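#onboarding

Welcome to the new folks! Below is a worked example of what a typical request in this channel looks like: someone posts a single protein sequence, and someone else replies with the predicted structure as tokens. Don't worry about understanding the tokens yet, we'll cover that in week two.

Example request:
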Amino acid sequence: MSTQTSYVLDELRNEAEYPAYASGKSGLLKIQDAPKESEAIYAFPCFQYAKSLDKNPTQVAEELAQEWNKMRQSKEWPQEWFPTSVLDHFEASRGYVNVFVDQKTLLARILKDLLDYGEKYGSYPKLNKTMVVDYCSPNIAKPLSVGHLRSTIIGQALINILRVRGYRVVGINFMGDWGTQFGKLIYAFEQWGDEKKLESNPIQHLLELYVRFHKEAKENPALEDDARAAFKRLQQGGEKERALWQRFRESSLEAFEKTVARLGVKFDHNWFESDFEGKADELVDELLVKGIAEESEGAIIIRFEPLWPAESPEPPPAQPPLVIRKSDGTTLYPTRDLASAVERIERWQPVHKLLYVVASEQTLYFTQLWNTLEKMGYPDILRHINFGMVSLPTGKISTREGRIVYLDDLLDQAKERAAQIIKEKNPDMDEGSRSKVARQVGIGAVIYADLSQDRIKDIVFDWSKMLAFEGNSAPYLQYAAVRCAKILEKAKSEDREGLDTLNEQDIPALAEELKEPESVKLLMHLGRYPQAIAEAAERYAPHVLASYLYDLATALSRFYTEVPVLKAETDAARLARLTLVDATGLVLRRGLELLGIETPEEM
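Example response:
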């Protein structure tokens, strides 16, 4: 049972959980949202608990409901913990204990929360916990591709959500800028480089040089030795090599930041792998002294336990060791990554979790990193925020050399497709406005198509679904938010003034006016917004927030269709309904903003 409450549904959830918590049954009785068609708010499935007792779930639910209702009326119930309770009673139904509320009081409390928090509705008090998020993290001298998209937008959405949840969050773009490949680039630029191309389009020119090097090396394998020699000179501080490498880094970072800015992303810190070369060597020595690492055939490795316990019926697979220093004395990327993890922990104390937003293919590596940090005295600090692959239907987007889909190309095409649709729907919109809205809608569609799905799943972009103004898409949500703003614009000046001057004394009368089922459902769903934030943060799952926003837009559509707003029967009803529209627009805009999606002024 959580001890922190900020919103009425948080308080209700805590109170509903109390009897299971007080009796020590909370491990077997997990609270969940009641089905949408139910009049209950929460429900406790009793199947697992009944199984532990070898009893019928229906009987157990009936016994618990009776016991909990009796407890609530007794001195056992800590009334002082819940002074503004909206809980009414518990009721058994088909193996569940359902939680019912005093709906009139609950609606008024949700309105009060909306009024009290205003623009900050959904945010939580600050926690003394720091999250460090590693995301995007490309290699320099290569353009960002669609492969970088998921890490970047999932990472930024999590940063936004975690901050609203109360965490101190630090976002790091940890770029690969070290290794033999940079010797190849230095050699290639010295042989075939073009200063003008490097100035005008540095990333593309560096990619061309890298591709040419490998093509030439197939005919002349000795070039690999030349590249290793160039990298060795770079390691030893060669002035010419250092200057070139620094130019590659600076031009790459500038290009990266331009691209990710289109997605609404700005990194808190840009770190480079090379900055940790010296610290990596020191760390290897330290791990040897502590007995965490050992020598094996001239290399330094860390060994791990099997991937699952030995008592498993299947023989446990051996977990491969992590090599942290090669036999030639050089460190590797994992060593520098580990050194950077230690730096994060020491710099931003107290660190609650280190999050790494990286594709699922790296699961074994992050298991090794997690185990190594645990051996070093940092237990359970790392979380691998894994995600599936992203692809596009064949022929839907142009590619260069038939292999790479560049992120800028994808975003350009999203904007172009959105512009065509907007021109058809709103032919009178001027060119400047259409270009701005096309950018907001097109890029919003790309972001939402990703974040609306569970991150662990592979996704395939479908342009028609992404840019649809109906169904579960960014344009649908953006249009719902714009509709709210347009309704408020059309309201009478005295109604808008009434909204601006609402105070706590007005809340009971407002709640009385919201009688229609569509009005009640919309207000109830607004009350769940903070919990959607909390759940998305707890599960590191932006799709939880995206799903909430889609349901909110759907509830708004039903409300708007069935309940007249500007033509309400009375002034009081109109003000109450405009209050709902105003709050819904606010939550849609803020929720989309957390996902990294802008809301246009018109569509």
